[in-house]
Amino acid sequence: MDQEASTIPPPAAEPADHKRQRRWHIVRNVVLAVVGAIFAVWLVLFITKGRFLKQPFSSIASSLTDRKVTVGGDFQLYFAPFRIKFVAERLTVSNPQWARERTLFAARRIDARIAPLSLLFGKRRFYALDLDQGVANLEWDKQHRRNTWTFSSEGDGKPFEMPRIDRATVTGTKIRYVDPQMPLLADLAIDPIAAKDARIGKAVGVKGTGRFRNTPFRLNARLLSPDASITGGRNQLEAQAWAANSVITVAGTLPTLTDVEGVPLKVSAKGSDLSDLLAVIDVAIPQTRRYALKADMVKRDRTYRFTDMTGTFGQSDLSGRFTITNEQRLRLDAALTTRRLDIVDAAPFIGYNPDVVAAKGAVAAAAATGAGARRVLPDANLPVEMMQRFDAGLEWKIAVVRSRNVPVSNIALKLSLDKGRLALSPLTFSMARGDVASDLIFDTRQRPSAISYDIRLASTPLGRLLAGYGLADSGTTGTIHGRIKLDGRGDTIHDSLASASGRIAFIMPHGTLWTQNAQLAELDLGTFLSKMFQGKLKKPIEVNCGLLAFTVRGGIAMADPILIDTSKNVVTGRGGFSFATEAVDLAFKADGKKFSLFSGQSPVGIGGRFAEPKLQVISPQLLGRAGAGLGLAVVATPVAGLLAFVDPGDAKSAACGPVLAGKSAAAQRTTKGKPRDDVGSRR
What letter would DSSP give residue 133? Predict the structure, then answer.
């Protein structure tokens, strides 16, 4: 038996063709089974419209997005035939816990045809979208790191990307956008949209209201490139907002509808007062008249840069650039240029309302600030609280100031604001061929504010300086230079000057003045009348040296000294003025160096207030001497009456050294070196 078994041949091997054929049958059967299963699923979904997937869809969508997704009405999800048809009524998607609004998105009805593969690869595509009564609450967190529309496990917010939509009908859409960092809140309504073949064909309008910081605004915007937007291209926008008595326009092209980072935008603004607009971001500037400005703006992180700015405020022009940085403290940096500045537009720099100045004058403008009647020093409070909220740096150059009386040009201002300390240092300008340099400090960190004024006038021709006040330039070679150095406390210009202490001194070196002007000031009637009849009024009179100085204590300025030495007279003065009440009480007297008949020899007074100074030519002393002369004429002879008006010519010439050095009255001397007894408190 064993021998027979060993002789049975082994079975023949299966041919290779048969193996391949069997494998093919297996693959075919598997494919047919899969296709059959898919078809069966498709058929079930198509017949049932996928309504039974309503609950699974909500659960799966909630799990994938980490948001609660609910469908309160009809639901359909199936292939029709190769496109995903999605229908949902009363669909809601919740916001993350940190958001203010509980709902990210809600719609009365969504009916969409979606490209299946676009959900897995590349940009999402809608063949068709019908959206009715959609409401979206789009919000950034306080750090501007996360947003409500980015479903990311990493938590980093990304700009919103518009899917490609071939055909769309969108009605009743509302968007609420919140950015706490700016802070900005906007409630927007989008006009109905009808798109076909990925084309809308006309601009899409957006209207709404909102609040930027604490300022409400109204907005009208248009998406000028809706066809490009729905196909994932450029987003050309134009928006106009009304806020803070201004109209602001923004136009540009964005990569996505919510991304303005690094994108150049054209911006313009116009309104009644630029200070109202900048106050929205807690930046304080002086008031302006009506303004209109335009610039290019680019936002990068928390910095907004405005370049190529041009425009006007009031009757003045303005150009340059500025930057707003919103880091731990708000900061404004600017470099500005003005070709012509109207003097009325400069009024706000000292606290005046320019519209009031233009309409009613400086006195009315001062009264509008709270100052008393007939006063000129403004009593407007410094914006102390706002000055301590932001920092600033400014360089401003002004070519010419339009002014009726004082020719001012070549202004260069450097401003620095650091935690409430405002420094205008230096502030320089040219005035009547003379230069003024000043340093003004307003330190609001001290209470009340510590304010210092340091104003220095370089040598300036008197004829040109006072030409607007009647002094002729021709025949006048005299010059003047001086300094005002005052320190005071107060939150208004008036209060700071009313409490100020320091010194005011103006020095007149050797020069000449028209005889007409000098003799009037001296009230030397004999010399004046004789020169008038001789036709020599334009003959210059020589000034050897002069000093008009005041020592200021507690807002009261007292002459210390007033002393002008001319070739024929010595003019002295006494009295002073008050910054607090703005009252003026000055008296000038001229003593002749030579004998003169018909000389009044009595003080010429200046009284009244800053707003209404009064020249008192007929002084009580002059009336007294007139009475004495009348008495002599009665008891003696008419010729004897003239003796009361005779000047014996015994004036003591001044030593010009102390005068030109700006020394106080105690340091003044005669040419013989003796202390003067006609100036200062010894008067």
Answer: S
Residues sharing a CB contact under 8 Å with residue 487, sequence separation 6 or more, in sequence order:
450, 451, 452, 453, 500, 501, 502
Average pLDDT taken over every residue of the chain:
79
The total number of residues written for the chain in this structure = 683
Q: List C-alpha distances in Å: 279 to 57, 327, 571.
A: 50, 18, 52
Structure tokens at 244: 């803070």
Cβ-contact 274, 251 below 8 angstroms: no
């927007």: which residue's tokens?
188
Cβ atoms within 10 Å of 551's Cβ, excluding its own: 19
Q: Say how far apart CA 324 and CA 302 lie, in whole Å.
A: 8
User: What distances in angstroms separate CA 610 from CA 376, 501, 584, one per listed residue?
Assistant: 7, 19, 7
581 pLDDT tier (thresholds 50, 70, 90): very high
What torsion do the CA atoms of 439, 442, 443, 447 make, to the nearest 10 degrees?
140
Q: Which tokens in the block code for residue 610?
A: 């800053």
Min mean pLDDT across 27-31, 297-301, 440-444 is at: 27-31
- Specify the pLDDT at position 532: 38
Rounded to a whole number, what is the largest CA-CA distance in the chain? 193
**Cα angle 7, 9, 10; round to 5:** 135
Tokens matching residue 609: 């207030």
- Residue 150: strand, helix, or coil: coil
Q: Which of 390, 395, 487 is nearest to 446 (CA)?
A: 487
Cβ–Cβ < 8 Å for 187, 210: yes
CB atoms near residue 484 (< 10 Å): 18
The backbone region for 448, taken as left when phi is positive above 0, alpha when psi lies in -120 to 50, beta otherwise, is beta
Q: Side-chain half-sphere of 336: how many Cα atoms within 13 Å? A: 25
User: pLDDT tens-digit profile of 408-439?
Assistant: 889 999 999 999 999 999 999 988 778 899 99
Average pLDDT over residues 138-151: 85
CA distance 29 to 628: 144
d(C-alpha 474, C-alpha 574), whole Å: 30
Q: What is the DSSP string of 219-233?
A: EEEEES-HHHHHTT-
- pLDDT, residue 81, reads 73
Sign of the alpha-carbon dihedral angle for 44, 47, 49, 55: negative
Query: For residues 249 and 219, what is the distance between their CA atoms, to the nearest angstrom?
Result: 10
